[in-house]
Amino acid sequence: MTASRGIPDRLRTPMERNLKSWESLLMLVAIGIFVANSFASPYFLNAWNLSDATFNFTEKAMIAFAMALLIISGEIDLSVAAIIALASTAMGAAAQAGVGTEGLVLIGLSVGLLCGAFNGILVTGLGLPSIVVTIGTMSLFRGISFIILGDQAYRGYPPDFAFFGQGYVWWVISFEFVLFAIIAAIYAVLLHMTNFGRAVYAIGNNATGALFSGIRVGRVKFILFLLTGLMSGVAAICLTSRLGSTRPSIAFGWELEIVTMVVLGGVNILGGSGSILGVVIAAFVMGLVTFGLGLLNVPGIVMSIVIGALLISVIALPRLWSMWRAG
Amino acid sequence: MQLELRADVSTQTASGVTPLLSLSGVTKTFPGVRALSDVSLKLYPGKVTALVGENGAGKSTLVKVLTGIYQPDDGDIRIDGQPVRFPTPQSAEHAGVTAIHQETVLFDELSVAENIFLGHAPTGRFGLIDSSAMMTRAREILSSIGGAIDPGTTLKELGTANKHLVAIARALSVDARAVIMDEPTAALSHAEIEELYELVEELKRQGKAILFISHKFDEIFRIADFYTVYRDGQMVGEGAMSEVSEPELVKMMVGRDVSQIFPKRDHNIGAEILVVDDYQHPTEFADIGFTLRRGEILGFYGLVGAGRSEFMQALFGITRPSGGTVKIDGAPVTIRSPADAVASGIVYVPEDRGRQGTIGALPIFQNVTLPSLTRTSRKGFLKLAEEFKLARAYATRLDLRAASLDTDVGNLSGGNQQKVVIAKWLATQPKVIVLDEPTKGIDIGSKAAVHDFMAELAAQGLAVIMVSSEIPEIVGMSDRVIVMREGRIAARLDRDDITPETLVGHAAGLGETRR
Amino acid sequence: QDDMRIALVVKALGIGFFEAAAEGAEEAAKELGNVEIIYTGPTDTTAEGQIEVINALIAQGVDAIAISANDPDAVVPALKRAMDRGITVISWDSGVAEDGRQMHLNPSSTELIGNTIIKLAADHMPDGGDVAILSATATATNQNAWIEAAKGVLPNYEGVNLVTTVYGDDLSDKSYREAQGLMASYPDLKAIIAPTTVGILASCQAVTDAGKIGEINVTGLGLPSEMAGCVESGATKSFAIWNPIDLGYSATMLAHAIANGAEAAPGAEIAMGRMGSVTLDDTNSAAMSDPFTYDSSNIDQFKSIF
Amino acid sequence: MKRILASREALLLVAIGLLLALIATRFPGFVTPSNLAAVFNDTAPLILLAIGQMIVILTRCIDLSVAANLALTGMVVSLINIAAPGLPIIAIFAVAIGFGALLGMFNGILVWKLAIPPIVVTLGTMTIFRGIIFLLTEGKWVNSHEMSDAFKAVPRTVILGLPVLSWIAIAAVILFSIVMTRTTLGRAFYAAGGNPHAATYAGINVGRTQFWAFTTSGAIAGLTGYLWVSRFAVAYVDVAGGFELTVVAACVIGGVSIMGGIGSVPGALLGALFLGIIANALPVVNISPFWQMAISGAAIIIAVVLNAQANRSPGRIILKRAERAG
Ligand SMILES: Nc1ncnc2c1ncn2[C@@H]1O[C@H](COP(=O)(O)OP(=O)(O)OP(=O)(O)O)[C@@H](O)[C@H]1O
Ligand SMILES: Nc1ncnc2c1ncn2[C@@H]1O[C@H](COP(=O)(O)OP(=O)(O)OP(=O)(O)O)[C@@H](O)[C@H]1O
Ligand SMILES: [Mg+2]
Ligand SMILES: [Mg+2]
Predict the structure, then answer these.
(1) Which CATH code is given to the segment(s) B257-345+430-515?
(2) What's B324's DSSP letter?
(3) Residue A216 is nearest to which of B337, B398, B400, comparing CB atoms?
(4) Domain that holds residue A95
(5) Which domain, by its residues, includes D108?
(6) Domain ABC transporter spans what residues (chain B) (predicted)?
(7) CA–CA dist B487, D257 (Å, integer)
(8) CA closest to D124 among chain A residues
(9) Which atom of ligand 2 is nearest to the CA of B351?
(10) Is the pLDDT score of B1 beyond 60?
(11) Is the CB of B313 under 6 A from ligand 2?
(12) What are φ and ψ of residue C2, in 5° steps?
């Protein structure tokens, strides 16, 4: 213990901290997978193929960034995939009625925001646990899609609507990938460099303490639900555009993949810690694993074993290691 | 239960009597902390031994070692001179050692009887729990300690005091020979404390050995026969209560003389700054109104549960009042959230440091700047250098002790955590600071520091509200006192009227209660 | 010269019908020589799963993709990209919207199948009565087309009253529950028509469990190997199917031919080995052969084949 | 009496009564004893799984791998049945329960020994278990005609008017009612989740209690796995896909608190029945099945809101007391 006159700001430099972090471990995994893939398949190191591979994760990752903030704050949203379905259905109905591309985008984003607001009110307004609220809204939102669409499908989106999910900005760089990168940057800044981000961490570590420190906990959480809804709306636009059609079963089961991506990215599922960089790397890891194994025509389910095992082992290994060292 | 141990205590020493329970050479380390180092302790049948020491001296750790919750790294525990080991809490119970722990360790959703017998319920056929036997025995134990609680009620339906009775009943449900009480009176009201003293006498008569841990010197001198003092995890003294004086005991604990507990202050009371009028709440309090001036310390006294904390939390925007107004510097303000309160210059140092005061997993500097982020940032973007600057300024001012400013607050000692909470609020440059039980559970050395600091704040023109259940503190520190009873103001006392008698009388609603 | 690689993409891996089709594809590959078959598909019947599979196939630069689609529209953009990269794309069994493939091979003519499934039911209900359809997913193109056709021929069968269509999503448990629901909601039901191999089996099981053999006849499209028990117990009087081995074989032959330059345009005739040849209609679709009806008289002969 | 009336379970029972009455107005045949028995039988697997899930949730964990466990165990017993059709059914039961318990133990050990958050563990094992089915079978289905008759007969054999499947659910409800209220382990489940800190002080090893909760949930899932595949006479990778969330929903509707420590077997039973009745009633009362999802979603949300209302502390009666005194 040092007397305060001499309290140093930091004991370890940020550099030292980073080298020992989760993100560096994950980065190693990512590089390992990349190298392994290059050896395993002759088709892997090809710009177009790598570009195609990004579609396996960009939409999920966009939601994962918002979800990361939500999980860091100690909440969760399992209704994200259902929001995609509802937003996509709304866009489909609008397209049917002749609404143009700008209008469709506006509708997709608004439905996302509305759904997020609905979750947010239930959780922050009524003080309900988010995991059960969003299990409920997950059925509710997708259920509304089913009521509207039943066994029908919406097609016939305006031709220029296809750009969001199928367009390329420059050479092999797809619009979705650029959007993914921009969103990642925005969320990284928001979480790590703003007052809002600091509040998110504080709430996740101790919501009562944050409230007693003058942070508007309810408002911050509500905004996080809004953001998650909004990102689901963005993903709905991209996915709908990529598929060119809407069915109520669209994006089925994505919520758990998105949560997996966030947790794999080193975000503490119990709240309080995590980084956007981690989620970005996790997105690449998941994308690389599925794509690499896909090139070998390994069925998707085997890839999910790999992801599941990776999820458990990247958390378990450091703990096993420290247990082993402690004897 | 029928122990016929009659040690000769007329000599005031216990030499020659085999202790019922004795410890020697016990050491316990946590990562980075040596909580106990080579300590010893002796408990005698039919006697109360007081264990005293500053916060973090290792008292509770010792309790956990004695009840099988922690395993000591080294050392020797004997019962009746025979060495024993407590690998699990059950094994300690079997050996006849039971404890009322410092924290409440009960289950809200279980019934009173289940709470009492969890882990050692009477079983009947097929090893199934025999609920009727459990009920009967629970009722017996409860009535033996003067509690009229139905063992079938769910625990969450009970008030604090009754919960505490259940905790005591739980400790007694084991056929114990040694009973450990870790700060048992910290959460009790005056009348309940008296009942507890009677219970202790009864246990003494039954020949049980009692270990009594407390920071309150009056009660130690009242009920203990022997004392043991720990400091920084080491034993620094032991002996008979009758052979030690209060200053001597304090010196042993703190390692230096603590001469003057309540600092003398010159009165420099300024203009009116806070006016609260007719504050109401549907269930917790009603008709609260008062004024506060710069440089003034306004004490709030009352029995536990009088609604002081609830009112302060409403004033701070945690809960919504159903009516009433607040004026700061003559201008009315609306407080709907703590953020509003901070913006209007009212800050609140809560009772529950760990849960409400600090954010344990965030570093010191982030805790300090949390409410002041708008000032250390530009357009919502953080500026770390500014944050460190602010945190360093207040850490220096409060003489905070820590390895670095990015140490997590959770790793600090209780006293230093309290400093972080105060630093956090001073950094917002408040007008009114509310301190809720600022010295609760704090040892005598740190207490003096907090009192000094409070006086200094008032001298600098800050208006201070101090909620406290400790009469000496209220008497020693307050310029004026408001006594609350059952959610309403029972009395307003000026400096000259503040005596222990008037305080207790108004708080209890009668005139006759005496300490 | 490298092998030509033809990918047979199915709705989901593990379904008996598609396993048999894959067998046929291998047979065609052996016959053609220099052809490698990649049998693949998602694990559940989703369009997103198929798109990931298609992306992986594009990346490998396969020569042709023959797909039985989970969703006629959602896979179109991915398949278009495949065609842009020079990959031959045909659909078979369950089709893809026209601009997402070069041709589509129906196992049989839609009208014929629609008529057959109604006739199978009507044959055993001389006095008419209520029938219900239990289909696969609500998005399955082929099933939907057959059901449309079946509704079209209904007036020809006097007294046969179609009460409802429900969807079992090609999941056994869901189909079983839907069949139970049908029996509960329509106490006078005389037949359940399931134009899907998963649905017909589950319905048969549900009818057997409800003790309604003889009361309710389960019919539709099924595989002889899987249906043998139902025919034996009497829950199913008769059912129909085309040969899935032939279907896989034909799809492979067509994909190979088009990848080798055969033109897929309305009116074109394309050969498909031992199955003869097909002529494309103006939607570039063609039908392979007629469905064949199985009952107690011939089931034993076929149950060991597919 | 007042406590019973006010309890969550009683509220839910009333809700179910109202629901049935509502359905009866449109379709009286639904509430005949024989149809209700059929609905109960159809809901039996959900009841079983909900009991297991309830125990896990009580200890502040969650088991997202139950449906995958069910599918894997179901496939394993099916494969055993193919390999050894003569194996007595009692052995099949033993394998199903044992293998399911083993999978549960795997979750439990990771939660206990490595302290990995349960949601992460079971999110991982959920995909791993299903993946293992694929590796075992290459995705091939085991169909009705490959299973032995004895294997398929068990859940549908009728005893005293009810199929064995229903009897097993009833037996589980009784057994676990006793376990949860009358055994040390049962109380430990409540204590470990209600207040883990205090449980440690009471000598309860919280990690080990959670381990046993996962083991129990796994054993139940394994048993249900056998019943499921034999009832529907089919086993494949995607059996009961997505069912884990339905199971959690049943618990939530049944008043089990996701924060641990609150819940009961009757609650889980009623929660499952509520969802089961809705699922069975919709097609009957001629509401399009496409409404089912939205209705159960709305039911979950309403249940959570009501439960939260019931749990809300009524506030201290401090002022009332003062008024009475004054
Ligand atoms: N589980 C633990 N892990 C790490 N350090 C611990 C743990 N428990 C206690 N300590 C440390 O051990 C020391 C002794 O703590 P203990 O709780 O025994 O003090 P105490 O004398 O009971 O204090 P108080 O009067 O405040 O109750 C403190 O420095 C504390 O921070
Ligand atoms: N009748 C009661 N029923 C339930 N809880 C009660 C009751 N009376 C008091 N409590 C609880 O006791 C605690 C103390 O009450 P409160 O904070 O209002 O009193 P106080 O006057 O501020 O006392 P102190 O600050 O000294 O604890 C609170 O947590 C409160 O919830
Ligand atoms: Mg202590
Ligand atoms: Mg208080």
Answers:
(1) 3.40.50.300
(2) E
(3) B337
(4) 46-314
(5) 43-248
(6) 21-257, 264-511
(7) 32
(8) A308
(9) 25
(10) no
(11) no
(12) -70, 160
Per-residue pLDDT of D261-317, as tens digits, reads 999 999 999 999 999 998 888 777 777 777 888 988 998 898 888 877 766 655 554
Q: What is the pLDDT of residue A10?
A: 75
DSSP code per residue over C70-87: SSTTTTHHHHHHHHHTT-
Residues 6+ apart with CB under 8 A from A323: D114
Give D4-30 as a DSSP string.
HHHSHHHHHHHHHHHHHHHHHHH-GGG
Sequence-distant (6+) residues with CB within 8 A of A162 are A241, A244, C77
Residue C125 has pLDDT above 70, yes or no: yes
Q: Which of A33-47, C237-251, D44-58 has the highest mean pLDDT?
A: D44-58
CA B189–ligand 2 middle distance (angstroms): 10
Domains of chain D: total = 1
- DSSP annotation of B145: T
Does D178 reside within a domain?
yes
Does any domain span residue D36?
no
pLDDT of the residue at A3: 44
Q: Percent of chain A, pLDDT > 70?
A: 95
Q: How many domains does chain A divide into?
A: 1
Query: In angstroms, what is the span from residue D198 Cα to ligand 2's centroid?
Result: 21
Taking CA atoms only, the protein residue closest to ligand 2 atom 13 is B305
pLDDT of residue B9: 38
**Per the domain annotation, does D116 fall within a domain?**
yes
The number of angstroms, rounded, from the C-alpha of C96 to the middle of its chain's C-alpha atoms is 13
Residue closest to A165 by CA, chosen among A78, A56, A47, A89: A56
| Sole residue written with tokens 């790294």 | B73
Say if D286 falls within a structural domain.
no
The ranges assigned to domains in chain B are: 101-174, 257-345+430-515, 357-428
- Domain for residue A25, yes or no? no
d(CA C76, CA C55): 12
Is residue D7 less than 8 Å (CB to CB) from chain B? no
Does D321 have pLDDT greater than 50? no
Q: Which residue has the higher pLDDT, D21 or D310?
A: D21
Distance CA B370, CA B374 (A): 9
- Nearest chain D residue (CA) to A267: D120
- Mutate: best of B64, B71, B109, partner D, most D CBs <10 A: B109
- Which residues in chain B are closer than 8 Å to A220, comparing Cβ atoms? none
Q: B60: pLDDT confidence band, cut at 50, 70 and 90? A: confident
Instruction: Please report the ipTM that was assigned to this predicted complex.
Output: 0.85
For B419, the closest chain A residue by CA position comes to: A4
CB B473 within 8 A of CB B271: no
Most confident range, picked from B380-384, D43-47, D257-261: D43-47
DSSP class of C221: B
CA dihedral angle for residue A291, residue A296, residue A301, residue A304, rounded to 10 degrees: -40
pLDDT grade for B145, boundaries at 50, 70 and 90: confident
Distances from the Cα of D144 to the Cα of A251, C36, C305, D141, D148, angstroms: 32, 33, 17, 10, 8
Q: For residue B351, report the distance from its CA to the centre of ligand 4, in Å.
A: 6
- Give residues (CB < 6 A) around ligand 1: B 30, 33, 35, 53, 55-61, 102, 414, 441
Residue A21 belongs to some domain of the structure: no
Ligand 2 binding pocket includes B302 (Cβ within 6 Å): yes
The answer to whether the beta carbons of residues B423 and B390 sit under 8 Å apart is no
Report the pLDDT averaged over residues B24-29: 91
Residue whose pair of structure tokens reads 């032995």 in the numeric block: D148
How sure is the predictor about A197, in pLDDT bands with cuts at 50, 70 and 90?
Answer: very high
Residue C170, both tokens: 């090609």
**CATH, residue A100:** 1.10.3470
- Residue-by-residue DSSP string for D49-100: HHHHHHHHHHTT---TTHHHHHHHHHHHHHHHHHH-TTS-HHHHHHHHHHHH
Residue A321 included in any domain: no
